Predict the structure.
Amino acid sequence: MQNNSKIILSSTNYPYYFNILELKNNSNSQFDVQPNPAGGVVTLYVNSIVGDKFNGNQTINSGRPFNFRMFYLGSNTLTLDGNASMNAGLVAPNASLSESGTFDFNGAILAKRLLLNGAGNIHYDESLAGNGEVNDTQYRLRELIQFYR
């Protein structure tokens, strides 16, 4: 996606497949979901994300997290960074997920590993509980490693 651009996904009948997704850093880009019908779920499968990150002034779905499921099929660490935001059910079973900066995430995350840094926010959206792909989001802490500076 180029600077100041917007993509809207709306089909709830068929999933979208992107081999490569590229969102420019600090681009003021908006990747939005407007499901048709309104209560439906838009599903996106992505093999690779250029730079392996969502970063800086990007909005990934400004609507309800329940309406968007994103499956990251890659195994590289995916970074949620900068002052971007995402509302989704994010499924990345083969990848670690790193959140840093002031990234604002709303929804549910299913990943191999979750690393939290910076002052970002992750808000669990209960409307995703028990819904298909993210029904495994009964969270429990298996390991905690703290680093002090």
The radius of gyration is 15 Å.
